[in-house]
Amino acid sequence: MVFRKATRALAILPCFGLLSTACDKKDDAGDERGAAPPPIASSRPGACTAGGGKPTDPVSAAHFPGVAGDYCIDPNGETRAYGENASSSLDKVCTELFDGECEVYKSYGLKRVVTLRYVDGKGSAGAINVNLSRFETKDGAYAFFSRRVIAEADPVEAAPAKLEAGGAGALGTGIAYVWRGDHVAEISYTNEVESPEQLKQSSQRALPPLAAAIGEKLPGDKKLPASAGLLPEAARVPMGIGYEAKDVLGIAGTGAGALGYYKQDKKRWRVLSIVRADEESAKDVMKTLKKVDGAKALKGVPFDVVSFGQREDDSSPRVDWLVARKGASVFGIGDEEHVLSSDQSPAEASAVKLTQDEKLERLKPLATSESAAADASEAKPKP
């Protein structure tokens, strides 16, 4: 699998009402949407006076606040749970909730799903539906979260806004995502009587308090996976982190890793970050990369650098990478495929991509920094 396919695999975004630009582009793909919860009548004013309803799933009940902002758990609603220690199987969640997306969730190690609804205590027709998914690993959960945030779109154009919630949060139009530990919450606002613009404004008010409250109640570590935590912050675009739980760059044997999206003036690039359990494992990653077709060692550089290129097919632009190792970490600087095309002139391409020297300039501090190596040692997976 080549680089474009690897990154473009972050593709399916659930369309709960009106969401982000990336979702709008997929609005015709109805067979890939999750089934929305059934509509409800307007809640009555005062529905939240007694603290709202109570979740009936004992495994996850502590993860849901009774009240957040103007909204509370629907006193007349139900809690549905699927998977481990639940009355319904994951196969049933495929038909009742996720529809055509079920295999996407399972590919990230889905273990359990809980869904419930919040209503407006002021009596409006607004409702907030929460799908809380638990995955086998923290890596799988964060990879799924990054898929939701970036999908296959360019984050410069289509990423949702950053939301302070859990370990990482994102806020789009009508939807919020919260990641923490091995959980991802998808929190969607609906209101059948509001116009698109009204829904956008209402969701911006209603979703953040609930997302933040759920993010605080979820168990697990808020710290990003080690490789994502080592991505440089300077020049990184907002919400510009993608994560693969296995085979980053689409290359078998590379394992889990993070991709950062960067922009400075007209120039665009990506940063690859991989953290392994020990130095020998990181050396194995470098050996794997040196086997990529056309890969070669870069000479005249004071540290070990391998260069290689990838393209999806003969009509696609080539994406070039420079990759080096520091201790148990592997870092790379590569082209940003979103600004490249097969019909660009050399001058047009050079205006938006880094030269080899510019890539080396950005790679050197990653490949030689003692502090980066120390951070990797502290953050690397524990036995």
The total number of structural domains is 2
Biggest sheet record: 9 strands, antiparallel
Count of extended strands: 16
- State the low-pLDDT regions, or none: 1-39
Query: Mind telling me the C-alpha Rg?
Result: 22 Å
Order of helices and strands: HHEEEHHEEHHEEEEHHEEEHEEEEHHH
- Classify the beta-strand content into a percent band: 25-35%
Helix content: 25-40%
Structural class: alpha+beta
- Whole-Å distance between the termini? 30 Å
- Outline: elongated
Average pLDDT level: 87
Number of helices: 12
What does this structure look like?
This protein is an alpha+beta fold and 383 residues long. The N terminus is likely disordered. The strands form 2 sheets. Strands 1, 2, 3, 4, 5, 6, 7, 8 and 9 form a 9-stranded antiparallel beta sheet that branches. Helices cover 29% and strands 26% of the residues. The protein contains 12 helices and 16 strands. The longest helix has 22 residues. The chain folds into 2 domains: 215 residues, no CATH class; 154 residues, Protein Transport Mog1p, Chain A, CATH 3.40.1000.
